[in-house]
Amino acid sequence: MGTPGEGLGRCSHALIRGVPESLASGEGAGAGLPALDLAKAQREHGVLGGKLRQRLGLQLLELPPEESLPLGPLLGDTAVIQGDTALITRPWSPARRPEVDGVRKALQDLGLRIVEIGDQNATLDGTDVLFTGREFFVGLSKWTNHRGAEIVADTFRDFAVSTVPVSGPSHLRGLCGMGGPRTVVAGRSDAAQKAVRAMAVLTDHPYASLTLPDDAAADCLFLRPGLPGVPPFLLHRGGGDLPNSQEALQKLSDVTLVPVSCSELEKAGAGLSSLCLVLSTRPHS
Amino acid sequence: MTTEVGSASEVKKDSSQLGTDATKEKPKEVAENQQNQSSDPEEEKGSQPPPAAESQSSLRRQKREKETSESRGISRFIPPWLKKQKSYTLVVAKDGGDKKEPTQAVVEEQVLDKEEPLPEEQRQAKGDAEEMAQKKQEIKVEVKEEKPSVSKEEKPSVSKVEMQPTELVSKEREEKVKETQEDKLEGGAAKRETKEVQTNELKAEKASQKVTKKTKTVQCKVTLLDGTEYSCDLEKHAKGQVLFDKVCEHLNLLEKDYFGLLFQESPEQKNWLDPAKEIKRQLRNLPWLFTFNVKFYPPDPSQLTEDITRYFLCLQLRQDIASGRLPCSFVTHALLGSYTLQAELGDYDPEEHGSIDLSEFQFAPTQTKELEEKVAELHKTHRGLSPAQADSQFLENAKRLSMYGVDLHHAKDSEGVDIKLGVCANGLLIYKDRLRINRFAWPKILKISYKRSNFYIKVRPAELEQFESTIGFKLPNHRAAKRLWKVCVEHHTFYRLVSPEQPPKAKFLTLGSKFRYSGRTQAQTRQASTLIDRPAPHFERTSSKRVSRSLDGAPIGVMDQSLMKDFPGAAGEISAYGPGLVSIAVVQDGDGRREVRSPTKAPHLQLIEGKELDKAQEDILKHQASISELKRNFMESTPEPRPNEWEKRRITPLSLQTQGRKGDHLFKDILSVKEKYLMPTTRTVEEKAQETDKSSHETLNIVEEKKRAEVGKDERVITEEMNGKEISPGSGPGEIRKVEPVTQKDSTSLSSESSSSSSESEEEDVGEYRPHHRVTEGTIREEQEYEEEVEEEPRPAAKVVEREEAVPEASPVTQAGASVITVETVIQENVGAQKIPGEKSVHEGALKQDMGEEAEEEPQKVNGEVSHVDIDVLPQIICCSEPPVVKTEMVTISDASQRTEISTKEVPIVQTETKTITYESPQIDGGAGGDSGTLLTAQTITSESVSTTTTTHITKTVKGGISETRIEKRIVITGDGDIDHDQALAQAIREAREQHPDMSVTRVVVHKETELAEEGED
To answer: Does the ipTM exceed 0.85?
Structure first.
């Protein structure tokens, strides 16, 4: 189990999935996504991979894009990983469910314990799950239902798993994230603040909270790829994307800020938490 | 029962007084005893009570005779002047000095006069102390020792058919002696010495007078955590504590406050044995079978003092894990299992352990080969860990599990959805399936109650809200509801309070006592453990191989006829009591009993149960929600997985504070963050809150006033006071609010009082507990934060409305002879204003810690029915209770020099009246009139306890650069006894001053209302 909170962000590997052309056309998704600049999206994606590999020093695994899975790059929705266990999700959108296959395979190969959702009534998008290092919060959103949350609780039994109602079209992780082991960052929108308040009620652990002007800025990744002594990183949306939130982010001490941009991918609903999965192959060391 | 307890403690008190004398007299004493004893046998023979089926009256007669003869026999040891008084012994009213009689006489008398043992004893004891010559000390001692146990045993036996074989008696005697000793363990050293002497005496004496006591013993069996069984014989009327102490002694366990005994009431219900009550009454006809279990899981096991305690905790957790009560992931199962192996088998030895079949161990509810392999693999990595270290590691990992120490209870929410309520150190958790869907930290809970099978919590309003909400849950039956309630009361007391709630002081307490946790709190037990001074006891770690499997799921307590046979006591009891009692119990179980008991209760219950109220409140709730939106930026956490930092400072010995624990460093971090952004003054306030909390065990909570004590204090006084308003209904919303809970409380407490007049509370189906008033820190913190952010306070408005809604309920509850006493105290202190404007901006955009427990404004009443305060609020009563004939007296005391001493005496009390005594500090200066300053904040906090309601009104104003905080505290004490106003006033002042040494008490008003109509009933 490790020391609580210490486990947050511990990682050795990152998993991403390439951007297919179908993402730009919007056809595959069929969900009326706005047209986006494919080249720019791919460039953003490439830069993200580069930062993960070079700046953070992670082993990067990149799954090849699949045209039949336009939202494949958003693989954060397909799995919830904690420690040595990966829960393969059952995304709300039936069209996206095939996305889990490639991810499952990759995670299995990395030696994680794979847990599947057998229940046909459960829906769970991975980005509705926030792990704080001490406990899980699962957003009950448009995408994730109670049954899905229950399976999270069943899978990660060591931890309290609390449900947080999420209003609007967002995922929980689109509203808030962890800025550090004891710091929750959240957007300023009503939905985000409401979620944070709900979490405050439910938790046994006090967290500090940092409010950012943009909800999307709260979708950041606290990563600790190195040894315990090395200051951890915060992978976050940069000034080009969200200039208003940069100042507030500076308030997070003890982390090295690593800005990245994904404004084009964002048009397809992507955020940092959905664009990559991080894991440690030695979760207990 | 109640009286017995009372008398026991009375006696104890006296005995400690006398202890020194007694020891001085020891030699003499002993000599005398020998004489006494030698004379006893003859006396005894002559007065042997007739066998079995003797009628009560004849039995009494018999005893009377015996007593007489005995005292005659002994009289030669008694000086004549004492002998004479002796004759009064049999009369109820006695003067001091009776106690010169030997023990026997006392015992008998106890039986005969049991209607009012308490005052009698008091008098007697006092008489002893004052009048008796040294020579008499011995007898006094005896009385002290003997009485508690004797009264316990003798009383019931008188009214029963006696047929206990004699062999049991002597055994029983020894029990008794032990019990007596144990009962008094709390006492000081001097007392203990006395006891030693006494014990010998008693034993000898008993041997000689066997037949006098016919109490029975019952065999108890206790399944211990390692799966073994401990059995012992207990006196039939022994209290739970006796058995528990025996078990702990057997286990060599000193830190026992974390543990308890469970008995299986039904296949799905287990109850904790209440140490303060007779076992028999709790068990009814169940077999005397118990399991020894952890009752309060220490949040941080590493703070336990002894390894042996940790070992027992480990055993409990292994059971919890194996039974699935404590869910774990695969990895955790493996890790914990490997520590178990390390503790039990030592270092992994390939030769020895390679062949061990791990399937004999149970590491998980369902155990796979894979798990066993993993366990074995991890076991190898623990090389070098001693058993104690392995246990510690086990606990370090187990304590982090989210369900560690969570006591789950099945329930349904208002919509009939199955949920679970989890009681834990931090509060109440609501689960649906495995998911946590809501949480109520203790500081957030104002009141816990149950009525029939419903369980209610009243939740503090979020900071900007004005309404408390009550959330109801449906338990499977009323006993389940009661059990949950008790567990909550106990957990709250154990984890949150410094010391258990004392029964309110006699002069204020006029209502029946209710269940309270009477053991030590965590703070106390930690304190006590620091005093443990013995070499680490040796103990055997038994293997956790599957032998112990039966422990968890279906404990032995299940009614088993074959087992029953082992318990003649339990079986015989039925016949001894006769069908009459049994049938009463049955009736009490039924729903109908409420009517039987007290009519007063009915209206109130309806209120509580009515669901329709919820709807009526919905609008208000919405309003509430919208207000709360305003507040969200000002959320602040009140961390509490454990007591937060400052609270902890109070609770734990200094040495412990530095130890970083899971939660502790969290707190530190949070606090440091906070320190950055809050003005330092904030902490001052908190620290004061801490003091306040400390003293708030008293029923009478006086004013709190926190002020930033940094600059020179310019003390000023505000004259405007709410005095007098209390009589008039409309004087102000704040007032009304304060009053409401009182009325409500009256009705409940009165009703439950009458329902439990039998003093057997096992059957009562209503219970209340108000944790709030003792958790003052939360309160203060809240208002504190609030002050910082909010300029203007919308408070008053809606309250009035609410009150009106509740009006209809008012009339039925007019209580008989109830008087309401209000103590108001105002303390205030002014300090230069330095905090004020800065804070807000500091907060803006800053790292705000708002994830703590008190943070949200939306109470998330997802589950459970949400209803409103007014369910149990009947404001009208007080407001309208302007007595038809009122005689009002106002005594104003203005004396700065001797405030503590209020000498005003007795206004003649005519039938019914409103009586007000006011104390005003002379410091009142002109300041009040002219410039009222700018109101910064105002806050009203209401808290309730059994018979008191405390309302604290805090206003903060700025006048010309001076910030002034005024705390007005109003305490309403409800009861049907007479209250000494002067004392109340003096006490109010004293306590206010104690609590806020740096503030000045400017005004104290004691106001009493008595209802004329009820006068006769007093």
So the answer is: yes
